[in-house]
Amino acid sequence: MDLYGDDTEPVDGGEDLFKPEYKRYKRKDRKLDLSDVIDLTKQTNMDKVEEIELQASQHPAVRGLKPLKEWKNYSIKGFPGFIFIKNPFEDGQQRYWIERCVLDYPNKPSKTILDNLVDMSDIDNIWTYSQNKSNSDITGKDSLIMKLRWATMGYNYEWNSRAYYDEMKSSFPSDLHDLCRYIASAVGYHDFSAETAIVNYYHMSGDMGPHKDISEIDHDAPLLSFSFGQDALFLLGGMTKATKPVCLCLHSGDICIMYGDCRLVYHAVPRILPASQDILKHCYNFSTVSNSCENKITPEENGISCQEKLEVKSVGRQDVNWDLFSQYLQCTRINMNVRQVLPPGGTNIADYPKPVCPSQNGRGIKN
Question: Which positions ≥6 away from 194 have C-beta within 8 Å?
């Protein structure tokens, strides 16, 4: 499904060097050539990156993350304003966020693509409904969860006008706000406020065409993008399509940050790839008992490690069929894309002119 429109975007700034690369990695009629792809897990094309250090965050640490000094962070040569953080999550601790993305975040008051496709008035939980209807195959063509392509939280993005509105706003999850505030502070944005998130759900035939993220009023704050589940090829370009993009392979747990010169560049996801099971087993493990960590802790649990806490009580996902959940993740990549909409101190979108940026055309997830 194409959320944005056709492929006839104007080429601003000369020859289009982005589209050929997008098509090269997307096409399925020939063997995929990954020789130019930066893969920080496999350590390929490392001459294109530089390892960097982040600063100490000014906010409390978030459960499930490794100590900041243990993170592996990289910049991409020739693309200032882009930071790649290689999976900073402790072993198994991506599970909490994956559960939230599938079991919680798509539900009301969030807006999803399903609101435009089916009658959602009697569906309170998309996963529960899908699980009850699917029998043993959650990935069938009639499964509601497989029709889920995106969910928006906080300021709910209006796809037709490509804008945010004051009256289209729901509560933003406090756990995700804290996670993003901590990470943004580590790259120098200590006052970052997560105000909107688009959670994308890609399946193995999915892709997202070349586009810019320009609808926020505040373009100074960074954009934070989290990957969970299956792998993806990510193209990072320039302000115009005359810049040839670089291609990175994103694995579960990886975080991309776009700020400064890179905040308004073209980017795309031309391909979803099967993830290594050896890598995934260190990222999350879905068994019949949830091993997630609740984000909030009671006073008597203060100082108790995540693993110790799991031995005390369960998160309470007793009705979830984890075999079906695992089945769904075997063909799904989840992307949490978090942004700040308003400048610091801003309260109303209507107080500001609509953002303007060259070449606003783009394309959405296709499956």
Answer: 154, 172, 176, 177, 180, 181, 224, 338, 339, 340
